[in-house]
């Protein structure tokens, strides 16, 4: 076991942890708004549920990067690679985009989703447009995910 | 394959046939009532508000009765039944129910009354239970609680707040001047909030005693029955029992009425139809003996309806083309495949005047992009099979729902296709099962390549798909400009951009940066490189000079506007980058599926291992499917709405809202 493995693992942990935290905050915010709508009009359950789940994707992206990192360093297959501290730090750096952007975008997507749930409460037929606003926030999580994946897979272990 | 062409149908008929004509139009359900301002000038309309409200109320109370029936005597319903749609009812059955509407209206009133009685009994029970509860501390008292006293004594029954004790009260009485000693203080019970007591004193000292007691916080209990507390409780219990029996009896009565549920549904819809007709009637200009109807009708239906109306009624019907400035309501009609995607366009906005219906082109891209994002053959097959079964099993499903399910059926097929291309079958389930449980190495090769192993390659292809999507959208903008005969606009706004962008791409491809990203080497002959430069420069110059052509202004300002327009290249860049979600979502499906498989195989081979694997596999993949279908749906919509429609389509048309039979429970078979 070397420091390198620790750094790499810290990277995987940061990706899962931060992005997951962002998503749970986001889904939490949206969930409160959703419960409010359903308490008045249970028929809108399916629509608001979709909205509530939108900020949930950051957590999945974090998981994705975390998983790729773990399999990259061989922690899952059994054959743990010998990783130098520098490589470990590189992997850590590669994991940061999805971690940090996941946290922040998850929180804000939650707020946007809550607002979009407001649209559904008043104008349910505008579902398509309402869905678009939270999806806009997500773009940046996707961009961060992209860089994280590309960087993690590109680092030679 | 597009926006349905509308015509205007004008009808003038006799009031004696008004009812039948309106019924006919409602059953036909293809005409939106609408009058041009000039046509109705000087004509009176009937005020039908009160009739409409009356029938709406009847429909609502019938609906209410059905809700009550559902509560007490639920019809057997499974979750899937909500997909089944409305039953088709023969016209004769419907007429029969309508003929007996008074009887069913009686049932409706009775059901509502019974329900009200049940509610009343329930609240009575709650009230009595409260009473019993409040008498519990008094149970030890063996006289009626409202006992006033005897000839020479006075009785106080009541409570003191928590901290007061019997001694305290007695001391306070004693220290009075003159002291009050002829007092009997009996503690009935105590709890943490209060002291329950009965106090007996001499009648002549009653007033002074009461003053002292009040000072200590004495209060009479809220319930003060003329019986001993235990007797009162018994009585309350007996009443609760009788209320419960009554409720049972009433519930039984409601349940017995459940046999007429079907008929109540029918008359509820009947009242709804009548309310609809009155609403329509309110819009029609009338004279003493005649009335007029005017409105939009799809051109394909107009002649048929005209013929039917003229044959049956003494009415004058004419069909005319819409005026050039009239905004026709929008009805989309597409082939079977594309029609399933109409809801996507509808929720963005229907084509406004002058725009064409983008459904067909969009549906093709929707189909492809959805599959790319989900890209797991097994998931795709499951979605298609599930949707296919639902469509076949419920032929009378609501039209809108049916179209959505059809859409997912097609999307499933696309997912299946891309799954095979990218080698995803429940992620890597086949490999894992073979390795862990069979001890073999099996791998299903991807038909094309595995994105997880070559993310850069997939990213480049995502951009290529994106570029095609965007170029098609931009091409459609050119098509619309040409349709409006705006050739200058076509060349300056569309062709110039195409030249500029294609030139830039051709210049980018042979560069080192591109090679290092994609590992793809492009060696163009010099002529192509030259062409790239020429295209870029020519395009850029046209945009620079022509972007500000619409307004008359000085040359420097015009050039500045041109520069600003050129800056629009950044929006192209961000649009194309946006397609990286094709890669991201595709990977998300695949990687999570792998995580699930890996988790499932943790216990290794053996009976326990297999059971564990099956459980994890089923739960995990259902979850993964659900979340990724949602993701693919949301992001495909986004790519269509923001990137694709952003290039050429505004929407904002008014949907076609025909005067038709708006029923809730049943559809009525039309007789010709």
Task: Describe the 3D structure.
The complex is a heterodimer of chains A (157) and B (672). With 157 residues, chain A is an all-alpha fold. Chain A is 82% helix and 0% strand. Chain A has helices spanning 3-40, 45-53, 57-72, 85-122, 127-154. With 672 residues, chain B is α+β, with helices and mostly antiparallel strands. The mean pLDDT of chain B is 88. Classes of the chains: A mainly alpha (157), B alpha+beta (672). Chains A and B meet through helix 3 and helix 5 of A and helix 11, helix 16, helix 22 and helix 23 of B.
| Class derived from helix and strand content of chain A | mainly alpha
> Largest interface, per-chain counts?
A-B, 30 and 29 residues
Q: What count of helical segments of chain B does DSSP give?
A: 23
Outline of chain B: extended
- Briefly note the structural class of the backbone of chain B: alpha+beta
List unreliable stretches of 5+ residues of chain A.
Answer: none
Oligomer: heterodimer
> Number of DSSP strands of chain A?
0
Mean pLDDT over the full residue set of chain B: 88
Distance between the termini of chain A: 15 Å
In this structure, how is the largest beta sheet of chain B organized? Answer: 4 strands, antiparallel
Helix content of chain B: 55-70%
What proportion of the residues of chain B form beta strands (DSSP E)? 5-15%
Number of strands of chain B: 13
* Low-confidence sequence ranges of chain B: none
